[in-house]
């Protein structure tokens, strides 16, 4: 009886994740609750295979929502700050992760999500590092919890520190992980902040591609003698290159062909729904047993990195903004 209920609930929740009104964090939370109740996905083989390919397809789809020229133009002045902030978070993530004894892949995923754009960055690099379900679930869970907190505390903090609309937009785009939470927090502050935050976040999201390429170098397969193996076709993350191609198509090809802007919006909408389904499937793997094996250390790592980037970027923006 319980197995039948688990299967019905599994299907119903996947269908619910398809609805635009269901946010990504809700889908992840639903998956985690499901895991706690039923002890894992009802169809484990389906869940594992589907989430892998759906995740990669969604990353490509998100590329159709980005304009390469606008992103580069908006981020030209703050390019050096972006480079420094991304590099700093990744380096500190490695150091703090080692100090806390967080496993390398989980630490790398949390650091990537904090440095660039939350769940999207984790989705992009996770297949490259061959992270397992537990590592992805813990990393995404950490990021989404902090995103939820950011929506609540950032607008009041912005007013408390007397940030201008421009300053708050920049701060939100740098210190908050996911684009959806950046937009939500900035929209609560002002329309001007929303425009600034969206453009700066768009620029930071471009770092998904170089991050994935650098990730390949650090997580190459090793041979028995310790020497790196030669690259094979099946280990090259082609979906990352497709992500870049999608941005180029959206920026240059679609306008030349007269393709309506609604087409890109629809592709992104489908990608986001697919991402929500993926998060649900990933969440179903976050069972109590998996949590016990992980502990609180990855979350502590995420909080420390979030605090460092939040405070550091606020000081820079207040000083030079």
How does this model look, in words?
The chain has 321 residues and is mainly α. It is 79% helix and 0% strand. It has 16 helices and no strands. It has helices at 2-17, 24-38, 44-63, 68-74, 79-100, 104-115, 119-129, 133-160, 165-175, 179-189, 191-205, 208-218, 238-257, 261-283, 288-294, 297-320. α10 (179-189) packs antiparallel against α11 (191-205). The longest helix is centred in the middle third of the chain and has 28 residues, at 133-160. The radius of gyration is 19 Å and the shape is globular. The termini are far apart. Residues 222-236 have low confidence and may be disordered.
How much helix, percentage-wise, in residues?
A: over 70%
Which class best fits the helix and strand makeup? mainly alpha
**Approximately what portion of the residues adopt beta-strand conformation?**
under 5%
Low-confidence stretches: 222-236
Helix/strand order: HHHHHHHHHHHHHHHH
| Shape estimate | globular
Q: Major β-sheet, in short?
A: none
In round numbers, the mean pLDDT is 82
Count of discrete alpha- or pi-helical segments spanning 4 or more residues = 16
End-to-end separation in angstroms reads 61 Å
Q: What is the radius of gyration computed over CA atoms, rounded to a whole number of angstroms? A: 19 Å
Total count of strands: 0
